[in-house]
Amino acid sequence: MIDLDATNWINLGLLAITGIVGVLSWRGARQAAKEAHTDQQAANLAAVRSASAAEQANTIQKRLVEIEEKRERQKAVSSKKAILTAAIQRSGDKSSYALIVSNRGACPAKDIEVFVNDQPLNDWKEFLTKIPEDCKIGPGGTFQSIFLLFRAGKLMPPYHVILRWSDESSARRGWESTLT
Asked: Which of 14, 105, 129, 135 is the most buried (most CB within 10 A)?
């Protein structure tokens, strides 16, 4: 057996305490490293989420810009369009009516053609007001043609009305409806 004196016991005690402190320090460092790793993973995940949110916001912003640009183009095109419609309303006595062609667009209509029941309006003897060849209807304007209904006449309701015109949009445009 080994005979230990007090100095050896002190050295052995210091060695044991140093070992214990080393193990505890190692465990503390290991725990701190685990926590740092977990914190780093959380930070990485937050960065990925932030980047994803920024990308989504960028995509949405681009889409909003596209929509606004489309609206502006449509507005520019609409400002070059005439929008013609027609209506029939009583004008005076029981047999007198008016076919009213209105322009609700922002541009004048020109080269206007009106067909009633597949015939040009000017071919109907019942229409007292004929459409001039150079007829133009400005924005908010109307053209009114008076017509008379005769029991024996060919022009009887319902009236299939077709409008065709040109405007600044450079496309021949049209409208049609059956009016009673």
From this structure: 105
Write out the residue range of the structural domain in which residue 34 sits.
1-78
Domain boundary among 49, 78, 107: 78
- Per DSSP, the three-state class of 42 is helix
Instruction: Give Cα separations from 22 to 15, 28, 130, 148 (angstroms).
Output: 10, 10, 111, 114
User: Which two three-digit tokens encode residue 156?
Assistant: 């009887």
Q: Indicate the residue among 58, 78, 98 that finishes a domain.
A: 78
Residue 171, token pair as written in the block? 């496309």
pLDDT digit string, tens, across residues 157-167:
889 999 999 99
Q: Give SS3 for 148.
A: strand
Predicted structure pTM score: 0.59
